[in-house]
Structures are given as C-alpha cells and as structure tokens.
C-alpha cells in the first residue's frame, strides 16, 4: 500500500499531495506487471510515514501523519490501527484495548509469533507516563506544536485485540525516527535513523525470545555504512541483509548498497549494484522465489530542502541475487524485439500472449 506523496505539476512549481488510500498496487515478479485493486470498508485516512506489516492474510497499517482533513482522521500524527483482509480487500478499523501507543510516523515494524511489533517514530509528547523516552525537537516546540523522537516498543496482539508493553532488558536504542528494521528468525535488527541533528549508523538486535537488546553492534574501527535515515534494511538470507540508500548527515541522498553478514567478523562490506540510483524514504522487499530485492517509491532529491524539487521516484529498482529464469529472459527478449516478432505472437500459448500484452501496457 502506498501512502507517500504523489507528484503533481503546475506551470510554476512541483506540488505534493497525499495518495487516496483506497487503492492497493500488487506487483507480480514473474510477469513484471502491476495490478491496481480498489479496496472497501473502513478505508484509512490519507497519510504518510505509516508502518505496514503482513500477518497471514492481512495487511496492518499503523500510525503515520495526516496532512489532509478527513472524517475520522486524527490531526497530525496518528496511533490508529487498520487491518486489510487480502481475501476480500476489505478494511477494518481496529480499537485495541490497553495503554495506547504514542502517535507517530516514520517508525519501523515486524511480525513475530503472531504478534505485531512497532519501534520508534516521531510525534507529539505523550500525555501520560510511558515506559520509553521521548526527546522534543526544539524547532517544533518553537513553532507551538512540539513533536519529537521516541524509542517506544509496543506490541499488538490480534488474538486479544490489545496493546502489550513487553518488559525488555539490555541497553535500549536511543529514540529515533526514519530508521529501518527487519527480522531474521527470533531476532529483530534496527539500523540507523535520526535523532536531533544526528543520523546514526548504529545496529541493534532484539532477541524476541529473551526480550533483550544487544547494544550497539557497529564497531567504530570497521568499515561501516555512514549514518543515515530514510533508508531500507532487508534480510536476503537468515544471516545476510542489505542496506540501501537514505539521507546522510550532510543531507545528501545516497545510492550506496551495503551487505551485513552476521557470520563475518567484519559484519559490513560495500555491495556493488549495477543500476543503483539515489533514493530515500523508499520501501524494499526481498522475493526469495526469484532472488530479487525490489525497491519501490521514495524520493530522488532531498525532501527536507524547502526550495528543492520534490522529485518522487516512479521506477522500480531491482537488485538480482540469482539469475533470471530462462522463461523471464525470453519474455524480455520478445518485448525488446516487439516490432520484429509481434507477428509471431499468435503462435504462443494464450497465457504468454496475455503476459506480453500486459507488459506492453506498463
């Protein structure tokens, strides 16, 4: 589900608006075709910076920032939770019991043992005693709408429809937002993110069975990725993960790719990508069946520059970790030589004809 900004043009400037949130886009890695599906039910208000996670046949959307006024939408940051049934494509607004999480956007999340975990984010100061830290951004305080970074770790239990606040041992990561996280086995890893004027390159591990934080695993004298926010961190095997792009300490949009190898004594190494492009605030998903890391959405320019162009990325970036299948290579070749070969398409099986026709529309 895409909740980031959509680009619109006028004669004088590039404007941004929020996508309508009743549409779901599905990408088929085999056919390389996008499909647009309209959803129904309690459709979430338009927002950005929310966190989406998949559990079985449901997509859950939590938090975000509402930049448009809609019925039922919270002003500014949200702590609303929505569930989309992927079978019926119907949304349901959930009202969990228990102490409510702090409203925030630019957080990270994952799923473990049938529960949803959410960590960190940026939002208003909680109005009640909470088991986490919150650091106010002085710029927002001067503007009269104080918001800041937090390190809350909250769990949603779909069986009881309730929020849970687990007891966690070990050194908790500092408050942050625009960080990235992923899970491998029973361990969740959090990398980078921003607090104040600092973009970090620290790596933290949470053992979800023991509920213990590891402390910072980034060693200062190793070759490490530079500090960043709005990047992606995605496991491609049980012990290897890829960090891509983001915004560095000098507000430069990054296009670098780093491999984290948990079995290596050095942990990090620079990974060369043939078609790498500057990208921040994107999403990444690894598809093991075809060995591809898909990078979608985000921005190609510094979104924090008030005078800069809001350059939204439209193309899908694909990093291959295994060769394409022979069938996919043949489909690519047939598309490349469309004019020479199209007269012969009618001799192909109907399903291949349909795939070729659909790919021409993309």
> Strands across the major sheet, in which order?
5-11-10-7-6
What kind of sheet is the major sheet?
5 strands, mixed
Based on secondary structure, the structural category is mainly beta
| Cα gyration radius (Å) | 21 Å
Poorly predicted ranges:
1-15
- The rough form would be described as globular
Average predicted local confidence, pLDDT: 89
Number of helices: 4
Taken as a percent bin, the fraction of beta residues is: 35-45%
Oligomer: single chain
List keywords for this structure.
362 residues; mainly beta; 4 helices; 28 strands; globular
Could you walk me through the main structural features you see in this protein, from its secondary elements to its overall organization?
This protein is mainly beta and 362 residues long. 9% of the residues lie in helices and 41% in strands. The chain has four helices and 28 strands. The chain has helices at residues 138-142, 326-336, 338-341, 350-361; strands spanning 5-9, 14-18, 23-28, 33-38, 40-41, 51-55, 58-62, 65-66, 76-77, 81-85, 90-94, 108-112, 115-124, 134-136, 147-157, 162-164, 180-184, 187-195, 198-207, 212-213, 228-229, 232-235, 240-248, 253-261, 268-270, 283-287, 292-296, 317-320. It has a five-stranded mixed β-sheet, with no helix packed on it. 32% of the residues are buried. The model is unreliable at 1-15 (pLDDT under 50).
């Amino acid at each position: 589900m895409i909740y980031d900004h959509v680009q619109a043009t006028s004669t004088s400037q590039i404007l941004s608006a929020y996508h309508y949130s009743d549409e779901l886009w599905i990408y088929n890695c085999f056919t390389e075709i996008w499909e647009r599906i309209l959803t129904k039910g309690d459709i979430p208000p338009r927002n950005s910076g929310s966190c989406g996670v998949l559990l079985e046949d449901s997509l859950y959307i939590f938090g975000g920032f509402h930049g448009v006024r809609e019925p039922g939408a919270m002003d500014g940051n949200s702590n609303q939770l929505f569930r989309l049934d992927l079978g019926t494509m119907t949304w349901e607004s959930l009202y969990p019991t228990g102490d409510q999480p702090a409203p925030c956007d630019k957080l990270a999340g994952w799923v473990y043992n049938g529960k949803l975990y959410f960590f960190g984010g940026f939002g208003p100061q909680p109005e009640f005693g909470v088991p986490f830290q919150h650091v106010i951004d002085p710029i927002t305080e001067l503007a009269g709408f104080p918001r800041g970074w937090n390190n809350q770790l909250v769990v949603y239990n779909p069986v009881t429809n309730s929020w849970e606040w687990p007891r966690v041992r070990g050194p908790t990561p500092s408050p942050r937002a625009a960080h990235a996280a992923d899970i491998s086995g029973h361990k969740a890893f959090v990398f980078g993110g921003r607090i104040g004027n600092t973009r970090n390159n620290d790596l933290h591990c949470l053992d979800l069975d023991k509920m213990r934080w590891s402390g910072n695993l980034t060693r200062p004298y190793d070759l490490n990725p530079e500090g960043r926010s709005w990047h992606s961190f995605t496991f491609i095997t049980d012990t290897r993960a890829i960090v891509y792009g983001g915004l560095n300490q000098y507000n430069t949009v990054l296009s670098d790719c780093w491999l984290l190898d948990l079995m290596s004594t050095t942990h990090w190494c620079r990974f060369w990508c043939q078609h790498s492009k500057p990208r921040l605030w994107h999403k990444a998903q690894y598809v093991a069946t075809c060995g591809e890391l898909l990078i979608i959405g985000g921005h190609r320019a510094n979104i924090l520059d008030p005078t800069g162009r809001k350059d939204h990325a439209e193309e899908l970036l694909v990093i291959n970790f295994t060769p394409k299948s022979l069938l996919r290579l043949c489909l690519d070749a047939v598309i490349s030589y469309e004019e020479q070969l199209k007269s012969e398409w009618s001799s192909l099986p109907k399903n291949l004809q349909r795939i070729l026709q659909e790919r021409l529309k993309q």
